[in-house]
Known about the structure:
Elements: E1 11-21, H1 28-34, E2 38-41, E3 46-51, E4 56-61, E5 65-71, H2 74-90, E6 98-110, H3 117-123, E7 128-130, E8 138-142, E9 147-151, E10 156-161, H4 164-180
Antiparallel strand pairs: 1-5, 1-6, 2-3, 3-4, 4-5, 6-10, 7-8, 8-9, 9-10
Amino acid sequence: MEPSNDVALDIIITNVVAVFRTRCHLNLRTIALEGVNVIYKPEYGKVLMKLRKPRITASIWSSGKIICTGATSEEEAKQGARRLARTLQKLGFKVRFADFKVVNVLAVCSMPFAIRLIDFTKKNRPIASYEPELHPAATYRIKTLKATIQIFSTGSLTVTGPNVQTVATAVEHIYPLLFECQKPLRK
Length: 187
């Protein structure tokens, strides 16, 4: 059987991590006392702030570096980061939204078939590794794309990469390799 080119795979983005800078010093105590939906973590030197729409959690450091997690698209991550900067401006800081960058995207995808992980790993060494005693998934790293794929025997994939386009390219890259190692259907 040949892998068909018209297979539609649903890639569901579960988390987008983005960073940006405020270009000013932030007083974490002031944010903790005057901000809403805030958790102050002095032992880590940061404040966690949650937004409801878009649903993101931000780690805020006094240096002005902010990491936003929990968005489900790059646009949502940027919108949430801008809302966060606006919230800090309203608390009295001279925030300038700068150096926004999406640094990591986590997605899940399901193949329409189950996979023989041992065969897949043997055919794709040294790029693929499988340690069933340590983790139930095989790991496949694509260095050129900076993407990592966790492959489960059920056909489920967990893909991490630097942006949404890379994640989609990684799934397109691995589909024919997985198609060769699919488990035969039971009759």
